[in-house]
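Posted in: Structural Biology > Protein-Ligand Complexes

Title: Requesting predicted complex, NDP in pocket

I'd be grateful if someone could produce the 3D structure tokens for the following input. Sequence and ligand are given below.
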Amino acid sequence: MLDFMKMCEASNPGEPEFLQAVSEVAESIKPVLEKHPEYRKTKILERMVEPERAVIFRVPWVDDKGEVQINRGYRIQMNGAIGPYKGGFRFHPSVNLSILKFLGFEQVFKNALTTLPMGGAKGGSNFDPKGKSDNEVMRFCHSFMTEIFRYIGADTDVPAGDIGVGAREIGYLFGMYKKLRNEFTGVLTGKGLTWGGSLIRPEATGYGCVYFASEMLTTKNDSFEGKVCLVSGSGNVAQYTVEKLIDLGAKVVTLSDSSGCIYDEKGINKKKLEYVLYLKNVERGRIKEYADKYPEAVYTPVDPALGYNPLWNYKADCAFPSATQNEINGKDAENLVNNGVKLVAEGANMPTTPEGIEVFLDSNVLYAPGKASNAGGVSVSGLEMTQNSMRLSWSREEVDNHLRRIMRDIHSACVEASEEYGTPGNYVNGANIAGFVKVAEAMLAQGIV
Ligand code: NDP
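-- Reply #1 --
Done. Output follows.
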């Protein structure tokens, strides 16, 4: 495995996030490769770390002042062995090849876990929607689609949202795709309800994460009733994680954005959550304004010199990182454990560093890696594709029932795989192994392609 990682480092220089994601999977699946010489002989893992296709392109657009702006667009089609490529677009200034390859790689395993036929991909741009007018966002999205439309399609690659890409962006992207192709197909998911979207899709990642965490608590005969929870982020995933936690009787005391975090000891109730949705989805304001509106809440700005995130240093029972990668480092993980946290379920992708994961596993925290616990979003995206193919729409209850079942199945798959390979209770190994085996079997059957 050492040689394998050396090879990866040599062929992917300057891609720390991608190497971090690969190294975690490679470590988990060691016993699987030992048991299956056919996977080693056909170099399944070596093939999996090489994207099937990576497209990088120029995205020129004109801002409101008439000035020409240029961003970089990407689509990484990582693995299509079990279905059409599927994975979101991220629009954020930090986007680069390493981040999208890590996200695409994670997506392959996550999608395999959902029980639905979807390959893995990821894409996006270093475009920052923050502070841009609606017209600027529209012009950017239209320009982005004029190139990427060649590589996607309802049976080829079906993108969705991620950081910085919500209902507004999906609308603009879909509009341009439809115009260019002159066809109305389910080429994107996260669409509006009147034009092919699915009920529960906006809620799916947050709800799914809480359903997964509930399954974990059930293994300990416990529930969310009365639990104090820390949630980071204040975007799509965070918003619906909070909603479901409130429904299940928990008290959520934190939220954040890239500028800082709020702590509301009394708890974020439904009325306050409604304000957060308005603040973030309509006004597109900052989380600091929560503390202006509700003076009982304390706002703490980000301080990079601190070396840890104050949000993870409050007393609580459970934590739901729902903002971005590597937001929990080793020190944060220690703070969480010292403050009584017994469960961590990741809404974000790879929010915990390898040092942080080690702390959780050593402390017997119930720890769910994002590729298992945040798979609800892509699962309902898969259900949106099914509804589009059938040209009908399911009720809210129907989709929610499917989502619950899928999260329960993913939980069982993780538990069974971790037990079969000798590390019961280790959801990291469970998720990596269960996802890997499904894709590996398909690759084996399809030969060297
Ligand atoms: P949104 O854009 O809706 O929200 C992202 C939130 O995280 C915002 O509050 C944002 O703050 C904050 N954030 C983003 N980057 C940083 C950063 N570098 N440091 C601190 N805070 C940051 O995105 P989503 O809620 O959709 O995504 C959140 C996470 O969940 C991501 O890791 C994503 O990959 C993952 N995910 C999302 C799914 C989905 O269905 N949407 C599915 C599965 C996983 P600010 O506004 O200041 O940037």
